[in-house]
Amino acid sequence: ATGIGALITYVIVFLLLVAVWCLAGWWFASRPVVAQVLTRWGHVTLPVVLIATGLIILIEAGAFGL
């Protein structure tokens, strides 16, 4: 069981790192070259990245019994 102090620490760290990801996404997307690439290829790259991430998580967790 996790104590309340550790739980609060986990929540704060999680929220801070989400903020970092949001700021990084905003910064990259506000760059004209990156924005053009995302506008043109984002509908293809996002599903590929999400599926690849899911597969990596499942394989590393041993979900397929490999």
Q: What's the short version?
A:
Helices cover 83% and strands 0% of the residues. It is built from two helices and no strands.
Structure description:
This protein has 66 residues and is mainly alpha-helical. Helix content is 83%, strand content 0%. The radius of gyration is 17 Å and the shape is flat. The two termini are 31 Å apart. The model has no long low-confidence stretch (mean pLDDT 92).
Question: How far apart lie the N and C ends?
Answer: 31 Å
Radius of gyration: 17 Å
Order of helices and strands: HH
Shape: flat
Structural class assignment: mainly alpha
Helix content: over 70%
Put simply, the count of helices is 2
Low-confidence stretches: none
Keywords:
66 residues
Tell me the layout of helices and strands.
Layout: H1 4-29, H2 32-60
